[in-house]
Write a structure and sequence with these properties.
single chain, about 400 residues, alpha/beta, Rossmann fold, six-stranded parallel sheet
């Protein structure tokens, strides 16, 4: 009999944890494992790349209702006698009006108001995996029946006060907590020292063969530019686009001929576009939106730039390294899990001038750039051994 596994993740939009999960799913032996996948939100670019053996479960009905306007939501809920849906939606909406909550608080509040309206799975599982913190973890803790439960933590997860207390009550229900880098593990241990024996590290999995193959068929820049910089990441505060824009402003003032491309969508799009206009970077800092296959862009870049404030691992940096593209990155907490200063790229302080200086040095110092590319070509590619850690985890 096959081992029944459930994975839960927020969505399959093109981001680090999502790509890591997709790689993991591509490695599973489906003659031994039966895999269900539950998403919180549907319609992500990577859904079309799921292995055919993965059973994608239907959306939660309450989440589908919640995507409607309030008027349409109430009408549909009344028509179908979903009075609990109305309580959940109105309670959450009213709570949000009380103050300006952060994203983690919003996730907690949403779950607290909606958990009674979200159904449990129809089956029990041998293994259940929450492949992200927040909603996937809450859902798995409270609604899923499984012999073993594992929670992935793919950011540097610092929690305080009521948020820490609340999430402790969820992580208590898991057999193991998996962080995606050594620094993420240390931060989580500092927050929850009582879970020290439960915590282990499995890096985000990347497969060089898959990445190189997709780089050959992926779309790329049109038209070409003299110097192509690339950043991949959600348009959110974590990714430090204010730092990137300040760096681009400095680079333009220096007289450098460049185009800085961005692959990503997110809540700061309008704010970023305003800054692009304010800094007169319309033809220099270019938002490309999102694609399920970013590897053609990475392969044809001159420098990959990461301006993150924090990362659990930094999968896009790993992908750039696999494709031998020099990296300039800010010194976020997990950066040295991958970066070797001035060997495979340049690690800078977390400000626009430092990032601009790093880019200018790579551009002007041909010897350094060639040495970095040579080092990248000699680096170990990928980390498929992390999949073996996953197998060991679930088979213990």
């Amino acid at each position: 009999m096959k081992t029944k596994i459930l994975f839960v993740i927020d969505s399959l939009h093109c981001a680090g944890a999502e790509k890591s999960l997709l790689t993991l799913l591509s490695l599973i032996d489906y003659s031994e494992y039966s895999v269900d996948l539950q998403l919180i939100g549907y319609g992500g670019e990577l859904e079309s790349l799921l292995p055919k053996e993965v059973n994608l479960l239907p959306p939660f009905q309450y989440i589908e209702y919640s995507e409607l306007s309030l008027k349409s939501f109430i009408f549909k809920a009344l028509k179908n006698l979903k009075f609990n849906y109305i309580y959940s939606r109105l309670g959450f909406s009213l709570k949000l009006r009380q103050k300006n909550y952060g994203n983690r608080e919003k996730a907690r509040l949403f779950w607290e108001f909606s958990k009674k309206s979200i159904q449990s799975p129809l089956k029990n599982y041998d293994i259940a995996v929450a492949y992200a913190q927040g909603m996937p973890t809450f859902y798995l803790a409270d609604r899923v029946k499984a012999n073993k439960k594992f929670a992935w933590v793919n950011v540097s997860y610092e929690l305080f006060g009521d948020e820490k207390k609340y999430q402790k009550s969820k992580y208590e229900k898991f057999n193991k907590i998996v962080t995606v880098s050594d620094s993420a593990e240390e931060i989580f241990k500092n927050v929850f020292p009582e879970f020290k024996s439960k915590i282990t590290t499995i890096y985000d999995i990347n497969n060089p063969k898959t990445i190189n193959k997709m780089a050959e068929i992926g779309e790329s820049y049109k038209p070409q530019a003299n110097l192509k910089l690339l950043t991949i990441g959600r348009l959110a505060n974590q990714k430090g686009y204010d730092i990137a824009l300040e760096a681009a402003k400095i680079l333009k003032k220096s007289g450098l001929d460049f185009k800085w491309y961005v692959l990503g969508v997110g809540p700061l799009k309008d704010e970023i576009q305003k800054k692009i206009a304010e800094y007169d970077l319309k033809d220099r800092f270019i938002l490309l939106g999102i694609t399920s296959n970013p590897y053609g862009y990475i392969k044809n870049s001159d420098i990959y730039v990461q301006t993150s404030r924090f990362e659990g691992f930094g999968l896009a940096i790993a992908e750039a390294r696999i494709l031998n593209i020099p990296v300039v990155t800010t010194e976020f907490d997990a950066v040295y899990n991958q970066m070797v200063q001035r060997k495979n790229g340049i690690v800078t302080n977390m400000d626009g001038k430092s990032v601009a200086d790093g880019i200018l040095e790579l551009v002007s110092n041909e010897g350094l750039r060639k040495d970095i590319v040579k080092y990248l070509k000699s680096e170990k590619k990928g980390n498929l051994e992390e999949y073996e850690k996953f197998l060991k985890l679930i088979e213990e």
